[in-house]
Structures are given as C-alpha cells and as structure tokens.
Amino acid sequence: MKSTTGSISRQTLYLAILSALIVGFVGGVGYSAFRSASLSTQQQAGGHTHSNEAPAAEAIAALEKKAQEDPDNAEVWAELGHAFFDSGQADNAIAAYTRALAIAPDNANVRTDLGVMYFQSKKHREAISEFDRVLGADPQHPQARFNKGVVLYSGLGDKTGALAEWKALLQTHPDAITPTGMALKDLIGQVEEEKE
Asked: How far apart (Å, rounded) are the C-alpha atoms in residues 49 and 28?
C-alpha cells in the first residue's frame, strides 16, 4: 500500500517533468533545456533561443519563400524549422530541420531541435537517435544529454536510462538546473526515490 505522501511526491515529480517539457520544448527554451552556473551564455543558448511567441503566419510564409528561392541554404531551412518549432508545428519543423541537416549535417543544435520535435510527435526512438548522433560527436553536449534523459523517462518509461544520462550530465555540469528551476540533482533524487 502506498502512502499519501509518496503519491504526492510522485505527482509533484510528474508535474515537474510535464512543466519541463512544456516550458523547455514548447515554451521557448528548446535545446537550452537547462542552465548551469558553469555554462557560458553561448552554451546556454546553444545558438538559437526559441521565442515564447508563435511567429505570425506571414513570417512563416516569408521564410518558406526564402527557402524555395535558396533551397541549398541550411541556415534558411533551420530558421524555418525554428519558426515551426515556436508555433508548435512539429511535423513541419521536422521537415525543415531534416532539410537543413541534409545540407549541413554537423549542426548539433539543429539536430537537437530535431530530436525535440520528434519527441513532441511521439517518435521517441527517432528523438533518441538524433540525440545520440549529437552525443557521438560531442559527448558533453548538455542540451542533447538532458533532452535524451527526458525522452527516455517521459517517452519510453526508461527511468534507469534517464538517470544514467542525467548523472552523466551532472559530472560535467554539477550546477545544472531544469527549466522549472529545480536543481537537476534534486530531480535525480526524486526519480531515484520513485524507483524504489
């Protein structure tokens, strides 16, 4: 029999994870899903900060036109992907990011955003694959490592795998904080408590 305290703690954990997903993935944090006192501003932003406001349809149309006029410009495709990301159009963002990566496959931040969009589309294995590609090139890429943990935990129900990712992240970024303001080490503690 579970105690009321245990289920409140579990409910709090689920709300924290849900908030992290909403704030981090949709609300504009994107691949800067956490911040750390030891990270520089550029590393926190990852190169592009997602907006809290959805771009107007006219802005997306203008980017689509630019992409058609300059189809080999990875930056334009990435910007179009960001616009779709910010407006909650995961499938369109996936298509734009995929096109950008076909031109410039080494852009870790675009690849991380692609993983986030796969997660949002409930394509969890594809999301993990993208994060793994980023981590294969840069094992210390903090946003990919954190996001992989979130997908493992929330998408695939793999608490052990999520904990391993987050603990690896803590080794290089001991002051990591989730989008909800919770220290990553505290989130790890809650997940470990739940596992027992």
From this structure: 7
